[in-house]
Amino acid sequence: MIAAILIILSITALIGLILGYASIKLKTDGDPIIDRIDKILPQTQCGQCGYPGCKPYATAIANGEADINQCPPGGDDGVHKLADLLGVEYKPLNAEHGETKPKSIAIIDESTCIGCTLCIQACPVDAIIGAAKQMHTIVEKECTGCELCLPPCPVDCIDMVEIPETTDNWKWKYPIHSIKQQN
């Protein structure tokens, strides 16, 4: 009788150790659905959705506080992907938040720039470099095309230039969903 109790206690202790180890090793630092939603979003950090960046918008979608159709840079394809991920019905892009535009980057006319640093302060991804009263420039690889640098510029020396389509940035123009619906 005592041997059986000791065996059961040993097995229980072993299972407890395994579960304790698994809870530490397999712990997640947040809601994985938020991360999956965030990966679908375009990471422009533009705020057109009504949230200060893509991660807060992803959190709001996951919590049911925001609709899936508020991201103009993500476009129709992004809305389709979010609908598929969340198992909800597709909704067309909400025009209140803007309209989808071709991907572009900011370019500073360096001869006109007065070095005010207002664009640097407005850039959510630190894609603008320069110093006070010195010319500024855009790090093209970092620029997301959010256009947040345009309004604060007092001399209008920043232009948005559409990124030409190449094999590196080309996307299929018709979402898989529209192809499936036709078949």
Number of strands: 4
- Stated plainly, the CATH topology of the largest domain is called 3-methyladenine DNA Glycosylase II, Chain A, domain 3
Major sheet, described briefly? 2 strands, antiparallel
**Fourth-tier CATH superfamily name of the largest domain:** Electron transport complex subunit B, putative Fe-S cluster
Tally of structural domains: 2
Q: C-alpha Rg, in Å?
A: 24 Å
Overall body shape: elongated
Low-confidence stretches: none
Q: Give me the side-by-side strand order of the main sheet.
A: 1-4
CATH class of the largest domain: Mainly Alpha
The helix-and-strand class reads mainly alpha
* Count of helical regions: 6
Q: Gap between N and C termini, in Å?
A: 69 Å
Amount of beta strand: 5-15%
Give the % helix: 25-40%
Q: Write the H/E string, N to C.
A: HHHHEHEEEH
CATH architecture identity of the largest domain: Orthogonal Bundle
Overall pLDDT:
89
3D structure, described in words:
The protein has about 180 residues and is mainly α. The protein has 2 domains: about 30-100, Orthogonal Bundle (3-methyladenine DNA Glycosylase II, Chain A, domain 3); about 100-165, 2-Layer Sandwich (Alpha-Beta Plaits). The protein has helices spanning about 1-25, 30-40, 55-60, 75-85, 120, 175-180, and strands spanning about 105-110, 130, 135-140, 160. The protein has a two-stranded antiparallel sheet. Strands 2-3 form a two-stranded antiparallel sheet. Strand 2 and strand 3 form a beta hairpin. The complex is composed of six subunits: RnfA, RnfB, RnfC, RnfD, RnfE and RnfG.
